[in-house]
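User: Hi! I'm working on a homework problem where we have to compare a predicted structure to a textbook description. Could you give me the structure for the chain below?
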Amino acid sequence: MKVFALLVFYAVGLFVMGYLILDTESMLTAELASQIDIEIPENVLLDMLEEMRYWSKFSALLTLALLTIKCFLMALVLYAGLFFANRHQGVKLGSLFKVAVYAESIIVLAGMVKVAFGAFSDFTYTEFSLFYPLSVLSFLNPEAIQPLWYYPLQLLNVFEIIYIFLLIYFFSQEIEIKKTESSKVVLGSYLFSMSFWLILILFLTLNFT
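Assistant: Happy to help. Predicted structure tokens:
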């Protein structure tokens, strides 16, 4: 229960911070107003904003669901790494889920940093959606890059590196193995799964753009 309470804390924290300091409606309205070549009827714009307000009420639940799914999938990835290393005997999936939830704290922090930057910067809605703190993409001009490479360049960030180190640390503590062995299992399983995920995203991007 403590692990799920932590997930709820993550989701509520992101929701409250975004609700209090981030005005995505103004971002979207200003961006649409600046695009003089695209005429959007006022009633369509109002309907769009109303729909955004409606779904924002459920953003905390959606965030909680996504965090739970992500941590569960990461637990499966770590278990697969233990299985191929022949160290899975006696290891429960719940323990690995706990490892994933603890390590997820740094990704939640990255989300909060993004919200803070969005609130106190003059980002447009598109610029905010592409921004990821301390990522390679944040130091480049997105207009000079093909959209295909946006996600890979977002994924290359300082928070993701810290996330891997946290996975290694909590994994070694929970499974009670040496950090060198923990590094091999975590890096092997994580890098393989992320490579597969990245290829899938690139494939979908190519086919739907």
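For your comparison, note the following. Residues 179-208 form the longest helix (30 residues). Residues 22 and 119 are 5 Å apart (CA to CA). Good luck with the assignment!
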